[in-house]
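> call design_seq(struct)
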């Protein structure tokens, strides 16, 4: 029997082999859309983890990923042991026809041994449903028979290259296995025609490493200037325009075909089956028709040249998809023009696919733990920022090569018990809640006390120890990188706050302007209301390159008006007083010394003082709230926000591997303990249907 995971005993998973690849990733999106839970296994031989990372953001869903080669049976076994796998969709394989003629042994080893290991484990763990990626290549030249165009499933098989032979052999293996235990096995063999296009979101698509083998990715690379021109192999065929006819299918339609096949297997209750279905549109398009559709989509006539026929090409390979239509109740809904439009969106938004220059990542805990990464944006530029999945934390900021913030070299540093929340996203509720108590909709809540008599920074529900999904990393313009993290703050486990939240943390790094924008957004998807107040807890030391402390930092702030504190209880009295601190119009800055002045106070931003909005990002302009400068390093920092207050903390209790006053924090946010003060309360209550939002900017000079 398959073993269940301790945390999710009831969930049934679809194991998607090769799920990081082109068709696999689109299928994962459709599976999740249709309510399936997915586990992806991929050796990343022809793909990148970025597709999985983006899928998580696209689907707002956690996708468990194993970086495993199917041929490594013992590693593969772990997946069967750890998860309750219900069915398998098997995409993993090498797929380049031309390459397979050069290195056939690698193709046979990878595709066939990988499949054998998978099937043996399925047998051992009683996983009996499999959808297999076969290919129209198994038919070979169907034009050699009379009346076999369009190609029906009954067309005799006859692959003409090692790649096609591996698909043919796997089909045979599946048939033999089914014959041996007819009651048990349910196999759907899907013979794809020519998959094209990309997801309409522009977030996932085909990312061919090296020179693309297929028409559409090749044209896309010509259009963005990565290749010189398109070669059209022969215009002397007996077709409408002399170029060969193929059956092109939008990858989203193809992905949906897998859901239809899986449902068909799920619904086949009594006995087993092993059956083939063509997945094609049934409509043939010539090379020049596809060329025209693509040029229309990209608004430019890309250069092409007619060259001689390519060995092995034939006039017409169009599918007869009737069996899939009748039995799987599936047919294509999108056409070549749709595919070209989506491909163009994908290409223009990701001209180098998932490989972004200036973005590097490394594992921050053990290798292959893709949820534990440090991702650097702007690498090699004058402004580099490193983020962690853990807490969507800012791990490092380098200005002209010099680090100006505190941070640890690995995840363990961030998980120390006496945490200082270094660089972390703070939530669900930043700063203190008096006695950890509040009432909401007539109900009293008690949070765990973790700071004197109060609850600070969310107590045990704190975001700094939570693994954020993603990030979705993009390079939308020259010099600008974005990284978007997602947290599903769901369930009662380690969450003392009511309701389920979907939280987005988006970082925008402008390497030319040396700015880091932070955007917080939260949406309540379950429950009536929750308290919320988010911020970032970076500790700055603008002179870190020269000294361990920030002593000598010159500080000015927008306002000296500050929340009066009941110093015994360390919570605001509700009054606003004036503190000694240099404001922007003061003649001299406040100089932070080795020991004094010490601040752990919230200051009020005049123009935002009366804020009641739960979404300050939407209605408020950014206001500069603090300016810091160190004369020795000559590095300056400005902090801007849409929030009503900012806490200045001079790190006088810094611990967790640091000593006091190694870094100072400026934490924009809502009023401290607002949930317990009538005049501030509205701004920290997120109700179902509303969106919480705020913005912070760190600008360096
Ligand atoms: P792809 O290369 O983008 O995806 C295949 C994935 O499998 C890749 O992510 C690769 O890293 C992974 N992989 C390969 N060998 C593996 C192994 N031993 N262990 C673990 N992972 C492994 O290709 P695709 O276009 O998405 O194709 C998916 C499947 O569909 C393939 O089996 C392919 O032969 C078949 N197919 C593709 C086309 C096409 O034109 N794209 C047409 C017909 C059939």
């Amino acid at each position: 029997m398959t073993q269940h995971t301790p945390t999710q005993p009831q969930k049934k998973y679809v194991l998607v082999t090769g799920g990081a690849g082109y068709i696999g990733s689109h299928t994962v999106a459709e599976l999740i859309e249709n309510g399936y839970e997915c586990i992806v296994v991929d050796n990343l031989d022809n793909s990148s983890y970025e597709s999985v990372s983006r899928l998580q953001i696209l689907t707002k869903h956690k996708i468990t990923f194993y970086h495993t080669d199917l041929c490594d049976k013992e590693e593969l076994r772990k997946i069967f042991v750890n998860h309750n796998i219900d069915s398998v969709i098997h995409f993993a394989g090498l797929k380049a026809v031309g390459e397979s003629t050069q290195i056939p042994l690698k193709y046979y080893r990878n595709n066939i041994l990988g499949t054998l290991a998978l099937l043996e484990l399925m047998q051992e763990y009683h996983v009996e449903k499999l959808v297999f990626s076969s290919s129209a290549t198994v038919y070979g030249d169907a034009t050699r028979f009379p009346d076999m165009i369009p190609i029906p499933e009954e067309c005799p098989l006859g692959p003409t290259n090692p790649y096609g032979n591996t698909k043919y052999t796997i089909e045979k293996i599946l048939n033999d296995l089914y014959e041996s235990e007819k009651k048990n096995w349910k196999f759907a063999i899907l013979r794809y025609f020519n998959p094209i296009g990309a997801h309409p979101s522009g977030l996932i698509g085909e990312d061919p490493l090296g020179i693309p083998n297929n028409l559409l990715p090749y044209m896309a690379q010509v259009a963005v200037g990565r290749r010189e021109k398109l070669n059209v192999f022969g215009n002397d065929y007996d077709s409408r325009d002399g170029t060969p006819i193929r059956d092109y299918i939008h990858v989203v339609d193809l992905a949906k075909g897998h859901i239809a096949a899986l449902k068909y297997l799920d619904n086949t209750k009594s006995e087993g089956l092993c059956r083939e279905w063509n997945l094609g549109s049934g409509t043939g398009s010539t090379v020049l028709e596809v060329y025209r559709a693509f040029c229309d989509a990209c608004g430019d006539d890309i250069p092409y040249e007619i060259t001689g026929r390519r060995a092995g090409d034939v006039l017409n390979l169009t599918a007869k998809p009737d069996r899939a239509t009748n039995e799987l109740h599936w047919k294509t809904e999108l056409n070549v023009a749709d595919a070209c439009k989506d491909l163009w969106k994908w290409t223009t938004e990701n001209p180098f696919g998932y490989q972004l220059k200036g973005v590097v990542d490394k594992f921050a805990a053990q290798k292959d733990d893709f949820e534990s990464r440090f991702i650097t944006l702007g690498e090699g530029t004058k402004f580099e920022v490193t983020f962690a999945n853990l807490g969507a934390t800012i791990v490092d900021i380098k200005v002209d090569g010099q680090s100006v913030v505190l941070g640890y070299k690995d995840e363990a540093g961030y998980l120390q018990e006496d945490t200082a929340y270094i660089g972390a996203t703070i939530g669900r509720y930043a700063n203190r809640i008096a006695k950890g108590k509040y009432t909401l909709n007539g109900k009293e809540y008690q949070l765990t006390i973790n700071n004197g008599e109060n609850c600070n920074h969310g107590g045990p529900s704190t975001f700094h120890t939570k693994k954020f999904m993603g990030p979705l990393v993009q390079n939308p313009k020259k010099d600008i990188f974005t990284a978007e993290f997602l947290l599903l703050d769901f369930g009662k486990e380690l969450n003392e706050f009511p309701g389920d939240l979907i939280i987005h943390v988006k970082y925008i790094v402008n390497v030319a302007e040396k700015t880091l924008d932070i955007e917080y957004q939260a949406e309540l998807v379950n429950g009536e209301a929750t308290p919320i107040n988010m911020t970032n807890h970076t500790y700055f030391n603008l002179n870190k390159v020269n000294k361990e402390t920030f002593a000598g930092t010159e500080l000015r702030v927008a306002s000296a008006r500050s929340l009066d504190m009941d110093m015994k209880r360390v919570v605001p009295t509700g009054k606003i007083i004036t503190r000694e601190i240099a404001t922007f119009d003061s003649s001299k800055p406040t100089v932070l010394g080795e020991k004094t002045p010490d601040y752990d106070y919230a200051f009020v931003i005049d123009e935002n003082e009366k804020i009641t909005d739960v979404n300050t990002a939407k209605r408020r302009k950014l206001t500069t709230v603090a300016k810091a400068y160190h004369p020795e390093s000559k590095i300056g920092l400005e902090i801007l926000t849409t929030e009503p207050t900012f806490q200045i903390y001079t790190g006088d209790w810094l611990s967790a591997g640091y000593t006091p006053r190694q870094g100072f924090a400026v934490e924009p946010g809502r009023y401290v303990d607002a949930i317990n003060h009538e005049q501030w309360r509205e701004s920290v209550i997120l109700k179902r249907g509303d969106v919480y939002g705020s913005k912070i900017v760190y600008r360096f000079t």
